[in-house]
Design brief:
The protein is an alpha+beta fold. It has three helices and five strands; from the N terminus they run H-E-E-H-E-E-E-H. It has a five-stranded antiparallel sheet, covered by helices on one side. Strand 1 and strand 2 form a beta hairpin. Helix 2 runs parallel beside helix 3. The protein is elongated, with a radius of gyration of 20 Å.
Length: about 130
């Protein structure tokens, strides 16, 4: 009888620890133009969903690279989904922050590339001049 409880205890412990440590990772692409920070949170397994975001960021970077003295660089990293303020079904998500506060957020796979580019122009470019 003791071995039955011990076996059930071990199985329960394994199941519980599996749930606790199952922290799905998301890709983060970040940049820091002027006084702003830009973060693009994306699914690791499905980059197709973020193609509009990536294309808009690249176009925006190329457009402003020659007009600024600073070269804008993007950094790629990975973090746990529990460390961001979005649910998995809200990704991809673009967050533009200034002084530690979000000033613009666009999320969802149906966001339009032109809308994303216009948001970058309106938020980062117009306020940094």
């Amino acid at each position: 009888m003791k071995s039955l409880y011990l076996g059930l205890g071990i199985i329960t412990l394994i199941l519980m620890t599996g749930c606790v440590f199952n922290d799905e990772k998301v890709e983060v692409i970040s940049a820091e133009p002027s006084d702003y920070k830009i973060y693009l949170y994306n699914h690791l397994e499905d980059k197709e969903q973020s193609k509009h975001y990536l294309s808009a960021l690249l176009d925006w970077k190329l457009k402003h690279e020659n007009s600024d003295n600073d070269t804008l660089s993007f950094k790629e990293s990975k973090i746990g989904i529990k460390d961001i303020k979005f649910e998995k079904d809200q990704l991809p998500a673009l967050v533009i922050s200034k002084n530690g506060k979000a000033v613009e957020i666009i999320y969802g796979k149906h966001s339009d590339e032109e809308e994303i580019r216009a948001t970058l122009e309106r938020t980062v470019v117009s306020h940094s001049k």
